[in-house]
């Protein structure tokens, strides 16, 4: 199996991982994605440029799959980003409930610091 076929196989495996991605085991999926991307990067480094007609078809298929992979990874990134934002909001609201006087406004009013 030549490098281009291996690259196509790894790209297909990466696409399958992304299509079967589930919210519950996101860390495991991200780890798998990272491993496949590293493997793919190594294959791309070994790849030579001149292609014949058959290899050009394989490259076109890989590029089509790569666009789909990029879109799916962007969705996963957005989900992770949204989860981080929600966690930060929850953290700040929990802190506000624990100590409601911590973030008081001092704009023109007298605030007695004695307890």
Give a written overview of the molecule.
There is one protein chain. With 115 residues, this protein is mainly α. Helix content is 73%, strand content 0%. 6% of the residues are buried.
Name some characteristics of this structure.
115 residues; 3 helices; 73% helix; rod-shaped; mainly alpha; single chain
The figure for the number of domains is: 1
What is Rg? 25 Å
Measure the end-to-end span.
77 Å
Beta-strand content: under 5%
**In oligomeric terms, what are we looking at?**
single chain
What string gives the helices and strands in order?
HHH
Structural class: mainly alpha
How much helicity do the residues have? over 70%
Largest sheet: none
Fold blueprint:
Elements: H1 3-19, H2 26-46, H3 53-98
Give a brief outline of the structure.
With 115 residues, the chain is mostly helical.
